[in-house]
């Protein structure tokens, strides 16, 4: 376990609960943090850096600041270790490709911590969309808001939006074609603390709106899917009815020329909270990672899954910079061109060595 902050300590807890894990080793330069963790988990071994820990581990979970993800992951995989990287998978597309390529070269498991793809409510939402239960999809709206927590090395877009983008890709069973992004800085001098994204998909043909904020008085974790037949709200802050299906809708009457008639007719039906299997997504995610390490199975959220989300983040950052709609194909082409430009330089440096 590299990094034992908020998420790292949670991974330590879940890994210790797995019978298939014989020992948990933590990597953190802070002796104080390691000592604090040992109050709860006294049997955990501690190391100040990855190099000293490598002989004692088979796999690594990375929950360090996002700017360090790629270097740590590639170093561990180069040593033959399997890796689970917390979100965001990478802070740029070049690093994401570097991790995916290294995993393929070393034939190790690479997985991304898109925890909501292991959430029972998100599973149910995907099934509803796949069955056509909601009718024609009109739009999806997500909100992930809170007061904090400000990060040191990434803005709110890279910190919070990976959750919603991964949910959208999973539920819709597709990846976007284009992104528009609006963001601004308020309390922080360098990093955007609120952002809005419009994410367009071709299959199904739908737009999704994503709102993320570190600067909001209310904590919100909500996904709303609106269809022609039904509407669904996934509220992750609800303790019981996290998923609610609203049998509501609107229809446009046939043209009659009578302006006294209402322009739309409204349907109000029951609200149903479907039964969901109670699960802890992080525990399922960690268990799945360990199973993949032991069996060689491909993770459900593998490196390419992480790469798909980073493509959207890269396009959003470019959209923010250039104030325009950015197509995903643009950043894919740009990433390929960059890799080709870098290849001769790498080859030359190897010859020099």
UniProtKB/TrEMBL annotation:
- Return the SUPFAM superfamilies for the record: Glyceraldehyde-3-phosphate dehydrogenase-like, C-terminal domain (SSF55347), NAD(P)-binding Rossmann-fold domains (SSF51735)
Domain annotation Gfo/Idh/MocA-like oxidoreductase N-terminal: ranges: 1-114
- Domain of life, source organism: Bacteria
Give the matching Pfam families.
Answer: GFO_IDH_MocA, GFO_IDH_MocA_C3
Q: Name one GO molecular function term.
A: nucleotide binding
Name-wise, this protein is Gfo/Idh/MocA family oxidoreductase
Q: Which InterPro entries match?
A: Gfo/Idh/MocA-like_OxRdtase_N, Gfo/Idh/MocA_Oxidoreductases, GFO_IDH_MocA-like_dom, NAD(P)-bd_dom_sf
- Which residue ranges does the record assign to the GFO/IDH/MocA-like oxidoreductase domain? 124-232
């Amino acid at each position: 376990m590299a990094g034992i902050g908020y998420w790292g300590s949670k991974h330590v807890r879940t890994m210790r609960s797995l019978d298939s894990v014989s020992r948990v080793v933590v990597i953190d330069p802070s002796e104080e943090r390691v000592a604090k963790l040992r109050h709860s988990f006294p049997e955990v071994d501690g190391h100040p850096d990855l190099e000293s820990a490598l002989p004692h581990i088979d796999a690594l979970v990375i929950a360090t600041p996002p700017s360090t993800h790629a270097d740590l992951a590639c170093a561990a995989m180069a040593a033959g270790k399997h890796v689970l990287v917390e979100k965001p998978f990478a802070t740029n597309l070049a690093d994401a490709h570097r991790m995916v390529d290294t995993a393929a070269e070393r034939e190790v498991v690479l997985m991304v911590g898109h925890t909501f793809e292991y959430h029972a409510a998100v599973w149910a939402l995907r099934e509803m969309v796949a069955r056509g239960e909601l009718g024609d999809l009109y739009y999806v709206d997500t909100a992930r808001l809170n007061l904090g927590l400000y990060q040191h090395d990434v803005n709110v877009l890279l910190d919070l939006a990976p959750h919603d983008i991964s949910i959208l890709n999973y539920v819709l069973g597709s990846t976007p074609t284009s992104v528009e992004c609006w963001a601004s800085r308020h309390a922080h001098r360098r990093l955007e603390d609120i952002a809005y994204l419009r994410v367009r998909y071709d299959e199904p043909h739908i737009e999704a709106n994503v709102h993320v904020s570190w600067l909001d008085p209310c904590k919100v974790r909500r996904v709303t899917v609106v269809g022609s037949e039904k509407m669904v709200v996934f509220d992750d802050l609800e303790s019981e009815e996290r998923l609610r299906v609203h049998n509501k809708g609107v229809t446009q009457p046939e043209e009659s020329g009578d302006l006294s008639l209402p322009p739309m007719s409204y349907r109000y039906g029951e609200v149903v909270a479907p039964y969901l299997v109670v699960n802890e997504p992080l525990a399922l995610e960690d268990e799945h990672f360990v199973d993949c390490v032991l069996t060689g199975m491909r993770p459900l959220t593998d490196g390419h899954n992480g790469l798909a989300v980073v493509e959207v983040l890269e396009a959003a950052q470019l959209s923010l910079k250039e104030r325009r709609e950015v197509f995903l194909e643009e950043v894919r082409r740009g990433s390929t061109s960059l890799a080709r430009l870098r290849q001769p330089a790498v080859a030359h440096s190897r010859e020099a060595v």
